[in-house]
């Protein structure tokens, strides 16, 4: 299995409170706290990730 390739979310504070996501595995979107890269990560299927993003966007309006 390939390793997740994380990148910081464009919505994260680049200096401190950062969320990182990995989308390089077609069946999984992985999310982790950049301050704890060896800690737990949340793994979602792409459909759930899209629904999550849609919900977040609707609450910011």
UniProtKB/TrEMBL annotation:
The record's section on InterPro entries has: DUF397
Ranges of residues in domain DUF397: 6-54
Record's protein name: DUF397 domain-containing protein
**Origin organism lineage:** Bacteria, Bacillati, Actinomycetota, Actinomycetes, Kitasatosporales
